[in-house]
Amino acid sequence: MKKILVIEDDLTFVKTLEAYLGKLGYEVYAASRAIEGVAKAKEIKPRLILLDYRLPDATGLEVLVDLKQVESNPQVILMTGFSDIRTAVKAMKLGAFDYITKPVNPDELKLLVEKAMKATSTNDATAKSSDTKSATKKIANLDRDFVRGKSIQSDTLHQHIDLVAPTDMSVLILGESGTGKEYVARRIHSQSKRSKGRFVAVDCGALSEELAISELFGHVKGAFTGAHANKEGQFVAAEGGTLFLDEVGNLSYEVQVKLLRALQERIIQPLGSNTDIPVDVRIVTATNENLLNQVRDGNFREDLYHRINEFKIQVPALIERKDDFWTFTEFFRKHANADLNREVEGFDEDVTAIFNSYTWPGNLRELRNVIRRAILLTHDSTIVSSNSLPPEMKETAGSYTVHGSSPYDLKAQKQNSEREMIIKTLEEARYNKSKAARLLNIDRKTLYLKISKYDIDA
């Protein structure tokens, strides 16, 4: 029987989940605190973990890091309130399989659990070159799984991809979480002279320093506690192909030094070894951080920044792609219909208005998830109504009011959202601007400029 671990401090909710998932044939275990949940996961080795974001002794993001040590490499679904949507998106960058908002809809949960159980982990540290066929198949299906868009922003994005793909230049992809940076990286690979080689993706945001060195460069037996055998790193696994380093700004200084050497000299040295191994890979990196700020703050090497930034591609946020929005929406609707065996034909006027006024912090990923959820909940109609949307989304969309602008002005809506976030962060930091700047991941000068720009009383 497949094991599911629920880490949640609401005992009534836990009992409900145990009963529901038990009826679906799963063996359900529970823990009410983070430390207890991690210990239980190591003990029972579950296939799936349902993790609450707000626990008494830790946040879901902290627990995600600890769960990397679980031998069974379980999928993790984050359970969160809708107000935590940005955190949920960040959790997915740290390795979570997906997220689900509370109150949890049973049909949505069932679909997500089944999907997670079927999924094959793409972060398996022991992946072998036999995965080449699977990786090639994914690249061949890019056109089926994604839609290009028709806006000027989309045209510019794909022009840059077409321009740089045939070269061997290192590419730095910038963009918010959920905008499709990995899709851009895969497109570059599929159009390159290395397309017959492997495309290997590494989520640097989910790796500790020691794990990052081992994951990228490999290790020899006995290099550290638990290193019971030699392991080849992802540089070797991507030989002749493309190595995609997502969230590259999260790498520690020591790993940055080793990465710089690998790029400059085209050789690597496994952890615990004195042997140099020549490598032939193309490097594509991505981040949602401001690397230049990290360079100025001394957290990212300037020489490495220039080495990975031979060509830069900016992936626009969904809110900046007004002319593409309904193209993407229709694309996700058709795919959700096919996946969920539905025949939904469109969206009513209320849903259209909400979609137009909402700021979509999770970008394309959030749009896809919202549409899938809405279509799943549309049982007896061919038109999605606002009743199928999360109630918090309707409240959030209705709360945005940008002075002097149209409710359909996406740029103004984004600015208003940023203003509200800055105000909320200042309040949490008790108007300590240095602390607020750290929480917002910007420098103090930028914060002062935004306070002035948005006429915030601080």
From TrEMBL:
Which part of the chain is the Response regulatory domain? 3-117
Q: Which SUPFAM superfamilies match?
A: CheY-like, Homeodomain-like, P-loop containing nucleoside triphosphate hydrolases
Gene Ontology molecular-function annotations: ATP binding; sequence-specific DNA binding
Any one Pfam family here would be Sigma54_activat
Keywords of this entry? ATP-binding, DNA-binding, Nucleotide-binding, Phosphoprotein, Transcription, Transcription regulation
Which segments constitute the Sigma-54 factor interaction domain? 147-376
Q: Which CDD domains match?
A: AAA (cd00009)
SMART domains given in the database record: AAA (SM00382), REC (SM00448)
GO biological process assignments: phosphorelay signal transduction system; regulation of DNA-templated transcription
Q: Which residues carry this modification: 4-aspartylphosphate?
A: 52
The protein, known as:
Sigma-54-dependent Fis family transcriptional regulator
Recorded source organism is Cryomorpha ignava
